[in-house]
Structure formats: structure tokens, C-alpha cells
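Practice problem 4.
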């Protein structure tokens, strides 16, 4: 007899007696001679995905051991759903019971009727939280990342890929951390469009760094207008991923560091207007490094106006970024130590590119999921 495989099943219900439906589904699976339900995560109430107007769900995850093949297990799951009264409408409509095959050992399966790992599980906190409770060090076989790390990226949120919207990926982090270098390298691997910060064209910036505080507002407005123009939805390419070497939300970080009280008051009023026109990213990569190593890079690239930057200023910026991303809920967030993406490490670059692809909708992948 074949050795049993550990598999993980997503549980969901938002019609009728939700608790009873999940309980009966688990009992039916456990009665099967080739399935043993070994553990069940907490069952939690969650909002429906997207903007769907339907009842809240109860969701959880079950760990099973089975000697069935993945295809046979899928058949059992679907039969169980049918017996418990599920009506198949397609999409994310309400259902009495939903049993999704999330993981089957470390198998990767790509069939017309079965995709494992589940192609959207890395976007769902209600799935990843349940997996973390059962086995947080479980590794996703495609991404080679633990479910604990995948859950951390979501900050408790649940996200939906939008094939009709721009696929904007933003790389954030303090000055000198290597954002532009990473953007260029990823752009080649992903065949993506790049949108760079206008450091070299900002006529006020060198003078601000030289001590002309009265020009700080002009410099910040220059950046604001340029970035807002770049990130309008209609300005972003609908045909490919767009990469930026900044996150728009960092605008206020620098404004609060560089402007006096009167300048900041005016800037915030202008910022509010333009922020409403900007397209949010579908993914942010937060590139991290020590202030000392950032300062080394700044010295090496030798922009004259940056030579007054101190390690204390960079340390303060790092704290600002930490506060910005501590409560980040706009989109998935990957924290990436700069030391893990060395200049010549193509394997590390490919790994990061693979992660990025998971959070964007490439046109040839729209039908998946």
C-alpha cells in the first residue's frame, strides 16, 4: 500500500448553518477509507473577496493524510461538496461548502482541472493563517518560501489579482539601499517597464542638500508632480509589468524631514490632491540594509549633492520606512535584505523575480485561478 501523503484542504462556507456544513464535510472526509483528517485550524469569520455583496464566510484549513492520488482526492472533495448542497456558479459566489486542495505534499501539478499548489493561496490570509497554525515552516513548493513568510507579506489582508488593471510593482527603501539597481535587474528578467525617480533632473535638489532650506518646498513639489504624473493609471502600460524605484507613499517621509512647519502645511494640502490620482501598486518590495552600508553606496556613486548625507539621517529614514510599512495594508509587501540580492547572484535574482510573478497578473496567465 502506498505511503500516505500529507495534504492541506481549505475550508469555507457562507450559506446556511456554516459551522455544521464544515463539520459534516470534515466527518465525510474522515470516513473515507483512504483519508485521515489529522488536524484542523481555528475556524474564523472572514469577509467575502472583492466587493461581492454576500454573507461572511467561515474559513479554516484541515491537514489530512491520504493514499489517494491528487486527482482522486479532488474527486472526493467535489463529491462531498455536491452531497452537502453546493451549487456551482463559477467565480466567488456564495456556497454552502467549499473544499479547496491547497497543497499535496511537495507536488506541483498543472492540469486543466487541477492546479496545485492552489494558485491564489499566497494572496489569502485566511488560508495562510490556518496553515501557519498547523505548520508554519511548511514550504510552498513553487516559491520555496515558508507559509509563515507568505502570511507576513499580506499583513492580515486578502488580495485579488486584477487582470484589467495596471501591474505596478514598487521598490522602496532609504537612499543608497540599491532600489534602482534592483529595479533594472528585475526589469530585464521580467521584461518590465521602468519608471525612475527624477533625481538628476530636479533643479532644486542639489541646492537643498547644500543648505538652501527655502528651496526645499520647490524640490518636494517637483518630485510630487513628477511621480504623480508617472503613476496615473492611464499613464501605466497595460501590456507589461511596471517597476518603480520608489513607493509614492514615501513622499510624506521626506517632506516631514526636509520642510519647515509652514512649508509642510502647504505641501500636505497639495499632496492630498495628487495622492488621490495615483494608482496603488499590486506589490511592494521593501529593500533593507544598514545605514552604514547605504552610506558606502552613496559615497561610491559619488553624486556631489549627496556627499553631505550622514549615517544619522539614513538611520532616521530607516525608522520612517519601518513605521510606514509596519501597518502596510495596501498590497502584499516583500521585505528583502539587500545582502540577499548581490550584484552577481543570478540565482537570488531569479528567486525574487519568481516571487514578483506570483503577485502580478501576466496577460498569458489571466485565465488561471
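Answer key:
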Amino acid at each position: 500500500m502506498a505511503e500516505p501523503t500529507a495534504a492541506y484542504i481549505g475550508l469555507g462556507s457562507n450559506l446556511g448553518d456554516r459551522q455544521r456544513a464544515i463539520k459534516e464535510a470534515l466527518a465525510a472526509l474522515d470516513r473515507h477509507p483512504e483519508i485521515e483528517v489529522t488536524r484542523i485550524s481555528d475556524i474564523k469569520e472572514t469577509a467575502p473577496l472583492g466587493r461581492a455583496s454576500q454573507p461572511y464566510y467561515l474559513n479554516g484549513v484541515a491537514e489530512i493524510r491520504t493514499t489517494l492520488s491528487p486527482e482522486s482526492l479532488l474527486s472526493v472533495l467535489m463529491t462531498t461538496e455536491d452531497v452537502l448542497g453546493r451549487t456551482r456558479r463559477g467565480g466567488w459566489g456564495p456556497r454552502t461548502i467549499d473544499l479547496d486542495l491547497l497543497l499535496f505534499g511537495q507536488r506541483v501539478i498543472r492540469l486543466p482541472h487541477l492546479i496545485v499548489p492552489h494558485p491564489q493561496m499566497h494572496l489569502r490570509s485566511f488560508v495562510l493563517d490556518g496553515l501557519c497554525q498547523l505548520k508554519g515552516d511548511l514550504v510552498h513548493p513553487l516559491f520555496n518560501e515558508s507559509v509563515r513568510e507568505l502570511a507576513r507579506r499580506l499583513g492580515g489582508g486578502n488580495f485579488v489579482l486584477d487582470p484589467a488593471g495596471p501591474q505596478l510593482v514598487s521598490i522602496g527603501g532609504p537612499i543608497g539601499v540599491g532600489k534602482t539597481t534592483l529595479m533594472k535587474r528585475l526589469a530585464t528578467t521580467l521584461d518590465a517597464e521602468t519608471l525612475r525617480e527624477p533625481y538628476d533632473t530636479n533643479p532644486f535638489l542639489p541646492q537643498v542638500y547644500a543648505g538652501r532650506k527655502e528651496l526645499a518646498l520647490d524640490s518636494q513639489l517637483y518630485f510630487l508632480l513628477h511621480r504623480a504624473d508617472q503613476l496615473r493609471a492611464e499613464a501605466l502600460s497595460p501590456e507589461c509589468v511596471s517597476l518603480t524605484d520608489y513607493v509614492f507613499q514615501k513622499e510624506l517621509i521626506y517632506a516631514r524631514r526636509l520642510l519647515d512647519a509652514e512649508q509642510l502645511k502647504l505641501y500636505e494640502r497639495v499632496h492630498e490632491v495628487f495622492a488621490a490620482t495615483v494608482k496603488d501598486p499590486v506589490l511592494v518590495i521593501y529593500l533593507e540594509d544598514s545605514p552604514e552600508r547605504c552610506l558606502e553606496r552613496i559615497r561610491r556613486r559619488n553624486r556631489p549633492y549627496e556627499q553631505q548625507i550622514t549615517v544619522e539621517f539614513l538611520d532616521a529614514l530607516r525608522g520612517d520606512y519601518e513605521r510606514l510599512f509596519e501597518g502596510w495594508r495596501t498590497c502584499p509587501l516583500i521585505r528583502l535584505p539587500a545582502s540577499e540580492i548581490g550584484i552577481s547572484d543570478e540565482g537570488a535574482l531569479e528567486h525574487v523575480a519568481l516571487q514578483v510573478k506570483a503577485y502580478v497578473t501576466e496577460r498569458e496567465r489571466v485565465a488561471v485561478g
